[in-house]
Amino acid sequence: MATYFRRRSSIHLPITLSVSLMALNVTLMVCWIVLLAQRAKWTALTIGVLAFTLILAGLSVWLVLTLKEIALNNRQANFVDSVTHELKSPIAALQLYLETLRMRQLTETQRDEFHGIMATELKRLDQLINQLLEVGRLDALGENEEPVVLELEPLLRQMAESVCAHRGLNARDVFQFRATPLAISARRIVLELILSNLLDNAVKYGGSPAEVIVDAYPVGSRRLKIRISNNGAGVPLEDRKKIFRIFYRGGSELERRQKGTGLGLYIVHTLVKKMRGRVTLQDRDDGAAGCTFVIELPGRVELQRPQPSPQPESQLQEASR
C-alpha cells in the first residue's frame, strides 16, 4: 500500500501539467488582448480577460490542492510503513519467545526474563493501539468528565515517572523541574494525554543520555506556560509547523532510526487547541542543542494553601514564657 501511495503521489506530473496549462492560458490571453485591442472591441476584451483570469486562478487553486493531497498521501505512506513496523516488531518478539518457551527447557530465571520481555512487548503493542484509538475519539475525549483543579508540578512529575518507567530510565536522571507552584482547571484525561506525549517526545528525541528541563510559570491573570526542553538534535525550521500535522514525520520512514507513528504531536496540537491554548516549537533560550515545546493554556487558578490554625491563648502565654 505504501508503495502505491508513493507512486501515485509523484509531484512531477501535476506541476508540469499545471505550469503548461498556465503558460498556454497566459499566451492565449495576451493574443486575445492584442487582437481585440487592435479592433477596439472593448466589451469582448473585458469579458475575455476576466474569463482567462478566472481560468488562471482555477488552475492555481487546483495545483495547490493537488500538492496538499500529495503531501497527505506521502504522510499516509510513511504512517503505513511506521504502523506496520510497530505492529510487527512486538508480535514477532512474542512469537519468538513463546516458541522458545514451548520447545526448550529453561531455568526459572530464564523463564522470568522471557516473561518480563513479553510483558514489555505487550505493553508496547497496547500503547500503540490506544494511540490509534485516541486519534479517532479526540473530539469526544473528556467530554463526560468535569474539569477539576489540578496542581501542575505533581502532575508533571507523575507523567515523567510514567514515561521513564516505560523506557527503563530513572526520572531523576532525565528530568529537571523548575516549575512555579501552579494549579489549572482542566479535564484530567486531556491534560495527562498532552503532557505524556510531550514528555515522551522530549525523552525519545533527546541526547544520549537524554536531559529534559521542564519550566512552568504564570502568564497574565488566568493563563500559564509550560516549557519542555531537551538536548537532542532539534527540529529543522522548515519542519516546525509541519510536525503538528497528522501522520507527519520528517524524512523517510525506511531511513528513520526513531520509532513512532507521527500521531503524538497531532494529538497534542488538537487537544491544546480544544482547550483554547496554543503549542509551538522553538530553539532553546540558552542556545544549547535541542529544542523547546511551549504550551500556553488558560484556566490557571490560585493555589489555596492551608492557613496555620491559631493557637489557643494559653499556649501562646506558655510559649512567651
Note the main attributes of this structure:
321 residues; alpha+beta; Heat Shock Protein 90; 2 domains; five-stranded mixed β-sheet; 8 strands; 13% strand
Written description of the protein model:
The radius of gyration is 29 Å and the shape is extended. The protein folds into two domains: 1-136; 148-301, Histidine kinase-like ATPase, C-terminal domain (Heat Shock Protein 90, 2-Layer Sandwich). Helices cover 56% and strands 13% of the residues. It has a five-stranded mixed sheet. It has a three-stranded antiparallel sheet with strand order 1-3-8. By secondary structure, it is an alpha+beta fold. A hairpin with a 3-residue loop joins strand 4 (212-219) and strand 5 (223-230).
Level-1 CATH class name of the largest domain = Alpha Beta
State the secondary-structure class.
Answer: alpha+beta
Largest sheet: 5 strands, mixed
Which geometry do the CA atoms define? extended
Which bin fits the share of residues in helices? 55-70%
In N-to-C order, the SSE pattern is HHHHEHHEEHEEHEEEH
Based on CA atoms alone, the radius of gyration comes out at 29 Å
The number of distinct structural domains comes to 2
Classify the beta-strand content into a percent band: 5-15%
Strand order across the biggest sheet? 2-4-5-7-6
Number of strands: 8
Helix count equals 9
Give the CATH superfamily of the largest domain. Histidine kinase-like ATPase, C-terminal domain
